[in-house]
C-alpha cells in the first residue's frame, strides 16, 4: 500500500503538471474548439491509452533501460526540452497564436482523433519524465510491493489528469468565446503559456537528476 505522503505528493505533482500548458492540452483544446466536445472526449480517450502504455512500460522495466544506458535517458530529456522550447517559440513569436484561439482545422474521424490523442501523449516529454523520473521517487519498498505501488501511484496521476483534461474539454468552447471578446487577455494567456513552456524547457535541459533517482 502507498502512504498518505506518497498519495499527496503524487497528487500535487500530477495537478501541477496537468495545469501546465503542454502538447496534450493544446491538442485537446484545438479539437474541442473545432469539432466539439465529443471530438475532445474521443481524443482524451486516446490520451488515456497513452498514459496506460507509459505506466505499464515504466513499471515493467523502462527505468531499468535508462539505468543501464544513462545516455539514452539524457537524450530523452534533451529531446523533450527541445520540443517544449519549440512549443514556447510558437506561442511567443510575433504572430503566434494562443491555445484557446479559434483555428480552422480539417475535421478528423473518430479513429484519427483517438490515434492522434494517443500519439500526442506518447510523444509528450512531460509524461515521459513523470513516469520515468518523478513517480519512482514516491515508491517506498518498505511499505509494500514496489510494482503494485507503481501502478497505484500511476493510477492516481491518470485519474487527476483525465479529470482536469475532461473539464478543459467541456469548457474549451466557452473559454474561447470569452477570450475572443477580450483580445488583451488572449495575448496574456499566450505569453504566459509560452513563458511557462520555455521555463520547463530550460529546467529540463539543465536538470542533472540521474535516471537512478528512485
**Ends distance:** 17 Å
Helix tally equals: 8
Secondary-structure-based class equals mainly alpha
Mean pLDDT level? 78
Portion of residues in beta strands equals under 5%
Beta strand count: 0
**What order do the SSEs take from the amino end to the carboxyl end, as H and E?**
HHHHHHHH
What spatial form do the alpha-carbon principal axes imply?
globular
Task: Report Rg.
Answer: 18 Å
State the major sheet: none
Helicity, in percent? over 70%
Description of the molecule:
The chain has 214 residues and is mainly alpha-helical. It is 78% helix and 0% strand. It has eight helices and no strands. The protein has helices at residues 4-19, 23-35, 37-68, 70-92, 110-122, 125-134, 146-180, 183-206. The longest helix has 35 residues, at 146-180. The radius of gyration is 18 Å and the shape is globular.
Features:
214 residues; 78% helix; mainly alpha
Kindly summarize this structure in a few lines.
The chain has helices spanning 4-19, 23-35, 37-68, 70-92, 110-122, 125-134, 146-180, 183-206. It is mostly helical and 214 residues long.
Question: What secondary-structure arrangement, pairings included, does this model have?
Answer:
Blueprint: H1 4-19, H2 23-35, H3 37-68, H4 70-92, H5 110-122, H6 125-134, H7 146-180, H8 183-206
Helix pairs in contact: 1-7, 2-3, 2-5, 2-7, 3-4, 3-5, 3-6, 3-7, 4-6, 4-8
Amino acid at each position: 500500500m502507498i502512504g498518505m505522503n506518497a498519495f499527496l505528493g503524487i497528487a500535487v505533482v500530477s495537478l501541477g503538471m496537468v495545469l501546465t500548458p503542454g502538447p496534450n492540452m493544446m491538442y485537446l483544446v484545438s479539437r474541442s474548439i473545432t469539432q466539439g466536445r465529443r471530438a475532445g472526449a474521443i481524443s482524451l480517450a486516446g490520451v488515456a491509452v497513452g498514459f496506460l502504455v507509459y505506466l505499464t512500460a515504466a513499471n515493467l522495466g523502462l527505468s531499468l533501460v535508462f539505468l543501464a544506458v544513462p545516455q539514452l535517458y539524457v537524450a530523452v530529456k534533451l529531446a523533450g526540452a527541445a520540443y517544449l522550447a519549440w512549443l514556447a517559440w510558437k506561442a511567443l513569436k510575433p504572430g503566434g497564436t494562443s491555445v484557446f484561439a479559434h483555428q480552422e482545422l480539417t475535421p478528423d474521424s473518430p479513429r484519427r482523433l483517438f490515434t492522434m490523442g494517443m500519439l500526442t501523449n506518447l510523444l509528450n516529454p512531460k509524461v515521459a519524465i513523470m513516469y520515468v523520473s518523478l513517480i519512482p521517487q514516491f515508491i517506498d519498498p518498505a511499505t509494500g510491493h514496489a510494482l503494485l505501488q507503481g501502478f497505484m501511484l500511476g493510477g492516481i496521476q491518470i485519474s487527476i489528469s483525465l479529470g482536469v483534461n475532461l473539464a478543459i474539454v467541456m469548457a474549451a468552447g466557452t473559454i474561447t468565446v470569452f477570450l475572443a471578446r477580450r483580445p488583451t487577455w488572449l495575448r496574456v494567456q499566450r505569453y504566459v503559456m509560452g513563458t511557462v513552456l520555455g521555463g520547463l524547457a530550460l529546467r529540463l535541459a539543465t536538470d542533472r537528476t540521474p535516471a537512478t533517482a528512485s
